[in-house]
Write a structure and sequence with these properties.
This protein has 22 helices and twelve strands. The strands form three sheets. The chain has a six-stranded mixed sheet with strand order 6-5-8-7-9-10, sandwiched between helices. The chain has a four-stranded antiparallel sheet with strand order 1-2-3-4. A two-stranded antiparallel sheet has the order 11-12. It has three domains: about 1-140, no CATH class; about 160-220; about 230-464, no CATH class. The protein has helices at about 1-10, 20-45, 60-85, 95-100, 105-125, 130-140, 140-145, 150-155, 170-180, 185-190, 230-235, 250, 260-265, 290-305, 315-320, 325-330, 335-340, 355-365, 370-375, 395-400, 415-445, 455-464, and strands spanning about 165-170, 195-200, 210-215, 215-220, 240, 270, 275-280, 310-315, 340-345, 375-380, 385, 390-395.
């Protein structure tokens, strides 16, 4: 705008023939697209979650500004070329085109104009989501890979509206019904969670709601998260557990309510400032603990041979507080994942159906190119058996090849809804494709393992 404004103002003082009408058209060509695309830039966000805080990629804003610049300059040079062609040769020495680009040729102007106009043309053909989505996945990937707080903020920022489904624990509903001397329906005893509908909202700081469940109206408080991610991290520091602290016995049971769980948490230690954890362990506690222990042992020994020390791990049982603090710890799970250098996916029979396991994989893939994410992730099937031809097979791996995040579940239906909404916004079909391709790749390597030198993939993964 400054460039054209100065040229527009200086034309009356030049000896060149001034085409005032063309100058006004060119100036309008600058102003109108800038206003229109500028409004779209300010209003457009990469994530639009109903009731959640929207957040825009910094790289996306940069490329939208560059798009405006390219569009305006492309039109500028194309119109100069048109003006140069439309003037008679006898007048060419004094035309405005000669004034601005005295040594330019028609070919040079046309090629330059078309070349600069390619970015907005690609945007028009392929669409904003494809072009800008590609750019942010490639350029912003490292930024968000190191900042797992972004997904944590999305997970924490869920809002509710009247008519939304809200799930209530059956035990809570039973206590309420007993207090008012009302009979407890049989289905309440059979379920762990009962679906209700929000019929009223009190939009205060914590957001209270009246939920109608099984014909009973009950008040639910604290639907809105009042803590920031920084406050949660202050009270729930990211922790790691050293290999030397782990035993098979400590890995055997997760649901125990004995005092041993407190001791398990005390086996871990806070992560130092600026430090990283070697491995994040993604697994299902319903799968075989002894097989998981064998995988961890081999990982630790391979790491020791390669690095001269034993690794540190992030394992939920040891690094998350239990009881009332567990919910806050789960909210910062994304931050914990991106603090780890490598991610081990211990895939047993129940792993493909566990939504928290899927969420851990999703955090690894969400803002990185697929090849870049796979450098940090190793999938280890835990139920490998040799068939009659000596080829290794895994039912868990076959299930992962047909993975669909919509079929995965977790204990709390409210958490399940929040996670699936975020995954759908970022790209549910893309995520399903990532997981399936990863599983197919592992099965391919297993099928050809007997033909190659017997070097376990985990050794290569650790050395890499």
């Amino acid at each position: 705008m400054l460039h054209w404004g100065l040229n527009f103002a200086s034309l009356p003082f030049c000896n060149a023939e001034a085409d005032w009408m063309l100058c006004m058209v060119l100036t309008a060509v600058f102003i109108l697209p800038a206003i229109h695309l500028g409004r779209r830039w300010l209003r457009t966000y990469m994530f639009k979650l109903a009731g959640s805080k929207a957040r825009r990629y910094p790289t996306k804003g940069f490329w939208e500004i560059l798009n405006v610049y390219s569009a305006v300059n492309g039109i500028h040079y194309l119109m100069l070329a048109f003006d140069y062609l439309s003037r008679p040769d006898s007048d060419s020495s004094g035309t405005m085109a000669d004034y601005f680009v005295p040594h330019a040729t028609t070919t040079w102007l046309s090629v330059l104009g078309f070349g600069i106009f390619l970015p907005p043309l690609a945007l028009f053909v392929f669409g904003q989501q494809v072009i800008f989505g590609f750019l942010v996945r490639r350029i912003d990937s490292m930024y968000y890979a190191k900042d797992g707080g972004f997904l944590a903020e999305l997970f924490m920022a869920r809002e509710f509206e009247i008519g939304d489904v809200y799930w209530v624990q059956s035990m809570t509903l039973q206590r309420l019904l007993l207090q008012i001397d009302s009979p407890v329906p049989e289905q309440v005893y059979r379920r762990e969670w009962c679906p209700g509908v929000i019929i009223s909202l009190n939009d205060d700081i914590t957001m209270q709601a009246i939920v109608k469940v099984e014909g009973i109206e009950m008040t639910v408080a604290g639907l809105r998260n009042t803590l920031t991610l920084e406050e949660i991290l202050d009270s729930n520091a990211i922790r790691c557990v050293a290999w030397e602290k782990l035993t098979l016995e400590s890995m055997m049971n997760y649901n125990s309510k004995t005092s041993d769980e407190i001791d398990d948490y005390e086996l871990s230690r806070p992560l130092g400032k600026g430090k990283h954890i070697d491995f994040f362990i993604s697994h299902s506690w319903r799968d075989n603990a002894e097989v998981k222990w064998e995988c961890l042992m081999h990982c630790a020994e391979s790491f020791f041979k390669a690095r001269g020390r034993y690794p540190t791990f992030w394992i939920d049982k040891f690094c998350l507080q239990q009881g009332s603090q567990a919910a806050c710890g789960l909210k910062m799970l994304c931050k914990c994942i991106t603090t780890c250098d490598k991610i081990l996916l211990l895939c047993g029979p129940t792993f493909p159906r566990r939504l928290w396991c899927a969420w851990e994989i999703f955090t690894s893939f969400a803002f990185q190119a697929e090849a870049q994410a796979l450098e940090r992730v190793l999938l280890i099937p835990m139920d490998v058996k040799n068939d009659t031809e000596g080829v290794m097979q895994s039912k868990a791996l076959l299930a992962l090849e047909r993975f669909d995040v919509n079929k995965a579940t977790c204990y709390d239906p409210n958490d399940e809804l929040a996670m699936k909404n975020i995954i759908s916004v970022v790209g549910r079909s893309d995520f399903n494709g990532y997981v399936r391709r990863m599983a197919r790749s592992v099965r391919y390597h297993m099928a050809h393992a007997h033909r190659r030198k017997k070097t376990r993939e985990i050794d290569v993964f650790i050395r890499g």
